[in-house]
Amino acid sequence: MRAAFLTLLLAGCASVPAATPITAPNVAASAETDPVDSTSDAADDPAIWRNAANPAASLVIGTDKQAGIHVYDLKGKRLSFTPAARLNNVDLREMAGGRVIVAASDRADKANAHVALFTLDTAARRLVPMGRYPVGAGEAYGMCLWTRAKDKALFGFVVLKDGRIDQVRIDLSAATPRVERLRSMKLATQAEGCVVDDRTGLLYVAEEDVGLWRFAADPAAPTTGTPIARVDGRTLVADAEGLALAPRGAKGGYLVVSSQGDNGYSLYRLPGVTYAGRFRIGGGAIDGTSDTDGIELALGDFGPDYPKGLFVAQDGDNAPDTQNFKYVGWGKIVEALGL
Asked: How far apart are CA 328 and CA 206, in angstroms?
């Protein structure tokens, strides 16, 4: 059974069956960000920092892959902008002492991948550049971070456009960060979205027209991936893009996947990665999303508008304005899907 599944996954686009997507309810957005300045395909991927002391003052970071990176408040107002050429995906981790590290995949040099590092100045609500660091040959595309539980070491995963996944260690012990490539993994076709579960040390990656994969995040682990969900045209429609996690307990919760193919979002129940439902964003006073690239989700109290958590999705068609990001309460999604 697993061998047949793996064969189907590796076959790529030609293996995707014709099917009708499962009906997905609409969930209304509660807010949207100011549109990015760049025209055409520009906004790409968000990250969320939760202000534990004042949840309503939490921040959302979003990339404009033609110009730089933005910081927004929970009303969607742009608070600051940091110029940077060709940033794509972004992720963050709060380190010991409250220091917030932000990492983005840097595509300025399409022949040589880089990681751009920033610190988030939470008081000034702006990003402070730390530099850009080479990873290896290829075009940087996806980006996600992992904090290892046993020693709080920080690692990054850079997903190259050709499906290679490079793992790097990000050493912040000195005044100048050190980024060192440790190992590589490979998928057969184009991939981008990734997310790591800090609880379990598992890396999830979306191969866009094929399906979802799981890898062990520890650098000493084997580099072979396990297929966990395929693009079938019903539960998951090509192309699969952003990934996000809703952790619950020691291993449970949900893995969320955005699909550009039908403007939907699919949920898989953890730890077994079983299909749990689909939804779309729309049906409210704010326009819905379409052609979504990146998504992010953070659980917990984010103030009165988002008491159970915040889901952020890039909107690829925000006409007549340029692209932006939409905010949805996690509680609304849970209610719509009966989770």
From this structure: 22
Question: For residue 23, how many other CB atoms are within 10 A of its CB?
Answer: 8
Distance, in Å, from the CA atom of 52 to the CA atom of 25, rounded to the nearest integer, reads: 31
Per-residue pLDDT tens digits for 185-212: 999 999 999 999 999 999 999 999 999 9
CA 149 to chain centre: 20
Q: Distance from CA of residue 110 to its chain's centroid?
A: 21
Half-sphere exposure of 264 (CA within 13 A, CB side): 20
Compute the distance between CA of residue 220 and CA of residue 259 in angstroms, rounded to an integer.
32
Helix/strand/coil for 311: strand
Pick from 113, 131, 238: nearest CA to 184:
113
Contact 239, 258 (CB under 8 A): no
Rg of the chain on CA atoms, in Å: 18
d(Cα 189, Cα 251) in Å, to the nearest integer? 29
pLDDT digits (tens, 9 = 90+) for 116-142: 999 999 999 999 999 999 999 999 999
- 95, exposed or middle or buried, with CB in 10 Å at 0-12, 13-18, 19+? middle
The CATH class of 2-337 is mainly beta
Between the alpha carbon of residue 58 and those of residues 121, 222, 237, 261, 333, the distances in Å are 12, 37, 32, 31, 20
Q: Model-level pTM?
A: 0.94
In the block, residue with structure tokens 């300045």: 37
Query: What whole-number distance in Å separates Cα of residue 5 and Cα of residue 3?
Result: 5
Coil vs helix vs strand at 161:
coil
Instruction: List the chain domain ranges.
Output: 2-337
* Residue 45 identity: D
